[in-house]
Every structure is written in C-alpha cells, then in structure tokens.
Design brief:
By secondary structure, the protein is an alpha+beta fold. About 35% of the residues lie in helices and about 15% in strands. The strands form four sheets. A two-stranded antiparallel sheet has the order 1-2. The chain has a two-stranded antiparallel sheet with strand order 3-4. Helix 3 (about 100-115) runs antiparallel to helix 4 (about 135-145).
Length: about 150
C-alpha cells in the first residue's frame, strides 16, 4: 500500500496519521523497534524536519504534536496544527531515535518554564498555563539529562 509523503525543510517523510504531529508518527516505536525500517527512516526524517522548523520560526523549542494552543483557547490537532507553534512535549518520543537531541529540547523548555513542560509555545515564547508534564524544573531536568544516552 503506497504511503502519502510530504517534504518540508528538505526532509521527506510519510504524512503522519491520526491527529498529526510527532505522537502518531512515533508512538508505535515504543512497542516495536522500527529504527531500521522504512517507517523508522521516515520518522527520523520527520524529527529532523521538526527540529529545522523550530529553528526557522525562532521558537524556544521544537516539535509538532497535538496540544492546547499557546493562548489556551483551543486544542490544536488535525488541520489546526500549524508550523508557527512548537509543542515540545511531542518530542519526548523522538528519544527513540535521537535521545540527546530530544532530552536537550525538553530540558531547554523545562528550564525556561522552571516547573513543567508546557503544551505549546510560539516563536515569541508564549506559553500555556496548562502543564502537560512536571518533572521537577531545572533539577529534574539535570537528572533527566544525566540519564540520556549518546547517539
């Protein structure tokens, strides 16, 4: 069965299903090692496209995943996901492929917010009041960073 692909920021990957973003593209890798498969190579390309997008929009973190909007007024999923908003929480699944980069991204956002990861941020650094995961601010981040592997 052919898969629909798209190319963004120089990276070609399968179009994620479900609500879009990193979570549906990477979630199966939690259960099955896909790193050396066509699906895994696509996921790795999608991660790099997301990293590039974060840099291009000047966001303090990278990632595209269903989340509450930075202003807290709507839930962004499906066609409402836009490339001008980064949702770093979704990048946690990228640790399957790139543990160091994923940890760096999550820790950068955690250190900025000091207490928890936020659902989404904008290039201007806006953030939600809705915390999606709390792992202890900068101290928790240092413990998280110490546990990551090199790749």
């Amino acid at each position: 069965m052919p898969h629909q692909t798209e190319t963004k920021h120089g990276f070609t990957y399968f179009v994620p299903g479900g609500a879009g973003g990193l979570a549906p593209a990477l979630a199966t890798g939690i259960f099955v090692d896909e790193t050396e498969t066509e699906l895994g190579r696509s996921a790795a390309q999608f991660i790099w496209a997301q990293r590039q997008n974060g840099q291009l929009i000047g966001a303090p973190a990278w990632g595209l995943s269903p989340s509450e909007s930075p202003d807290g007024k709507e839930f962004l999923a499906y066609s409402a996901l836009t490339e001008d908003v980064a949702a770093p929480v979704g990048s946690g699944l990228a640790a399957i492929y790139y543990p160091r980069q994923s940890a760096d991204n999550l820790c950068a956002e955690m250190e900025k917010n000091e207490s928890a990861l936020r659902g989404a941020v904008t290039a201007a650094g806006g953030r939600l009041g809705f915390a999606t995961a709390g792992i202890g601010g900068p101290d928790g981040c240092r413990r998280f960073t110490a546990a990551r592997t090199k790749r």
